Amino acid sequence: MTFTNILQLYVFILAGFVGYNIITRVPPLLHTPLMSATNAISAISIVGALVIAGAKYSLTASILGCIAVTCATINVVGGFIITDRMLRMFKSGDAPKAGEGK
Q: pTM score > 0.70 for this model?
């Protein structure tokens, strides 16, 4: 194993540890708005995973890229579903239309 591989592994493990600690300390009330923001980050992850999956690096990189695309896509779709459900909770059926009084 080269120094570069060890450094990349160290950064990966550190990022996972820091991400886990940050997410577990977020109050439950903020999880849904936070999910909306993480959809954009997951979309960026999808683009990066597509680049890795489509590049001719190695079979292992392509397989891991496909797995990353699948996981990030599930995360984005789930985030949109949760956000949509949250927004529907705040809509009322009898809201006045534009131009109408109470």
A: no
